[in-house]
Structures are given as structure tokens and as C-alpha cells.
Amino acid sequence: MQFFKIVTFLLPAISLSSAQAGPVPAAQNGAAIIINECNFPVYYKSVASYSVLPNTIPAKGSYKEIYRLRIVNGTLNDNGTVNGYLGGISIKISPNQNIANSVNESDAFDASTITQFEYTYNPNAAPGLWYDISNVNGYLDKSYTGWPFEEFGGLVLKGTSSDCASVTCPPNNATCSAAYTLWDDNRTLSCRNNNSIILTLCSIVSDPRGLETGLLAGNSGVVANNVLPPKATSCLVR
Ligand SMILES: *[C@@H]1O[C@H](CO)[C@@H](O)[C@H](O)[C@H]1NC(C)=O
Ligand SMILES: *[C@@H]1O[C@H](CO)[C@@H](O)[C@H](O)[C@H]1NC(C)=O
Ligand SMILES: *[C@@H]1O[C@H](CO)[C@@H](O)[C@H](O)[C@H]1NC(C)=O
Ligand SMILES: *[C@@H]1O[C@H](CO)[C@@H](O)[C@H](O)[C@H]1NC(C)=O
Ligand SMILES: *[C@@H]1O[C@H](CO)[C@@H](O)[C@H](O)[C@H]1NC(C)=O
Ligand SMILES: *[C@@H]1O[C@H](CO)[C@@H](O)[C@H](O)[C@H]1NC(C)=O
Q1: How far apart are CA 95 and CA 108, in angstroms?
Q2: Lining residues, ligand 4, CB within 6 Å
Q3: Sequence-distant (≥ 6) Cβ neighbours of residue 96 within 8 angstroms
Q4: Which of 59, 194, 202, 214 could form a disulfide with 153 if both were Cys (CB 3.0 to 4.6 A apart)?
Q5: Which residues line ligand 5 (CB under 6 A)?
């Protein structure tokens, strides 16, 4: 079995000063959105502190989850801050079409190369949201001859405001320099937690705000809204 490491998050120890724009309240949290522009389904697991079963985003479909707070060990204060340790969320994504035909889809997913859309919502520190794209588990044999969506049109990650720097992984580039390739790269970005960040697979798009408006209007193929796979079980991070 392949165990994935969520190692790419370096939570900066930033203390709030009056000069910095603090995080906005959790009620205003944006969302992590994936738009599947591929002409095939992709498989994903949205992983916090327990293992989950894989789900599918159909061709031209999408997935959305409002930023989740992950308290690894600690307590939530009345004012929305946390005493203790925070962790990140990793939405693991694979284009491996053999997953659907496997006897054990979860095991087949875990054995596949993945691209990870990672974020941490941190109510303690400005600007409140950290995010990245990681291909660290995109080259299981360490060959670095192509990350999972490299041959299918690449990907782009954009925020709903220009405060959120974007990540572009162009197609037909064996490694994506804007994403984590090695665990000790430094590719984590941040912006305020009331922005949404939108990952488009297999296409480079220019209008993330329009895409989100379309999603919120309900005329899209949103397959999940902040809903974890129903058979989530309690387990260690993988
Ligand atoms: C959680 O934090 C408390 C206080 O620091 C510590 O005593 C406890 O061992 C921690 N638990 C785990 C599971 O790490
Ligand atoms: C939030 O509450 C905690 C615990 O009461 C306190 O230590 C912290 O200073 C408060 N933070 C803010 C920004 O009000
Ligand atoms: C798939 O295998 C895992 C162990 O790797 C097991 O926990 C799970 O129950 C299996 N799922 C099915 C549907 O057999
Ligand atoms: C594409 O890959 C080459 C090396 O393989 C690299 O020099 C170049 O910067 C990459 N282009 C982009 C846009 O990342
Ligand atoms: C990562 O890069 C940012 C600027 O892009 C820099 O401020 C930060 O110190 C770097 N972190 C490490 C661990 O190198
Ligand atoms: C986020 O909140 C700040 C402070 O209230 C506000 O200025 C900004 O317009 C908000 N951004 C979004 C995308 O709603």
C-alpha cells in the first residue's frame, strides 16, 4: 500500500500586528473548488486527519468544499481562534482511469500518482489561508518524466481576487516549477480566507470569478458541497 505524506505545509508562525489584515471570520470562508475540464472523470480524496474513500468528479463536472478548519490537537476558542496545533487539508486527485475498474478502488487510488491541492485555514494568523499545488506524490517511481495532468492540458489554480497568486502548470512540461516537486521546495502561497481558490484541470482558464459565479448560480455540475465521502473512517493521515 502506498502511504502519502502530507509534508508540504510549512505553517508560518506569524503574529498579528495592527498593520496586518487579520483573517476574516470563518462564516466568510471561501471555498476550494475543482473544475474538471478533462474529457474523462477524475478521482479524488479530500483528506484531513482520517482516511476517506475516493469519489469521482465527472468530465466537465466540479467539486467544492468550504475551507475546513483542521485542529490536530487543541481547542476552538469562542472568538474563532485555536489554542493548539492546526493542520492542512489535502485534496488528492488522480486521472488514473483504472481506479474505477479495480476490485478495491481505495487501494487503487492510493497506488496511483496524484496531484494534491492543499490548503490550510488558519484563524490565528494573517491572512488566514495558505495553499499550494503539490506533485510530490506525482512521480512514485521518482522518474520525473511527467506529473499526473501534464499530458492532459496542465492545470491552473486561481483565486477570486488578485491578492491570491496563481499557480500554472503548463501542459507538456515534465515538472511543474510552480508546484511542489520535492517536499522541501517552497511553493506555498497565501491570501485572505474569504477568497475562493479554483483549480481547473486540463485547461488554462482566465475567468475564475465568472466560473465561481456560475457555480453559485447552481447551473453547474457541482457534485459535492463541503460533504465528505459517507464512509469516512477514523485513521491516521495518509
Ligand atoms: C495534545 O496537546 C496536549 C497539551 O499540549 C498534550 O498533553 C497531549 O499529549 C497532546 N496530544 C496528542 C495526541 O498529541
Ligand atoms: C481569542 O480568545 C483567546 C482565548 O480566550 C485569547 O487568548 C485570544 O487573545 C483571543 N484573540 C483575539 C484576536 O481576540
Ligand atoms: C480496500 O482495502 C482496504 C485496505 O487496504 C480495506 O480497509 C477496505 O475495506 C477495502 N475496501 C473494500 C471495498 O474491499
Ligand atoms: C517547462 O519546462 C522547462 C524545463 O523542462 C522549464 O525550463 C520551463 O521553465 C518550464 N515552463 C514553465 C512555464 O514552467
Ligand atoms: C518561502 O518563500 C517566501 C517568499 O516567496 C519567503 O518569504 C519565505 O521565507 C520562504 N520560506 C522558506 C522556508 O524558505
Ligand atoms: C474579504 O474581507 C475584507 C475585509 O472585510 C474585504 O475588504 C474584502 O473585500 C473581502 N474579500 C472578498 C473576496 O469578499
Answers
A1: 12
A2: 170, 173-174, 177
A3: 43, 108, 109, 112, 113, 148
A4: 202
A5: 10, 186
CA 60 to ligand 5 center in whole angstroms:
35
Question: pLDDT, tens digit, for every residue of 133-174?
Answer: 999 999 988 888 899 999 898 999 999 999 999 999 988 888
Which domains does the chain show, CATH number per domain? 31-225 (2.60.110.10)
Q: Nearest to residue 92, comparing CAs of 40, 53, 150, 144?
A: 53
Distance 235 CA to ligand 2 centre (A): 31
pTM: 0.82
State the chain's maximal CA–CA distance in angstroms.
Answer: 56
Q: What is residue 133's three-state secondary structure?
A: strand
> Given the C-alpha cell 447551473, which residue does it identify?
219
Does residue 234 surpass a pLDDT of 60? Answer: no
Q: Predicted confidence band at 69 (pLDDT cuts at 50, 70, 90)?
A: very high
Distance (Å, whole) CA 225 – CA 22? 26
pLDDT for residue 178: 96
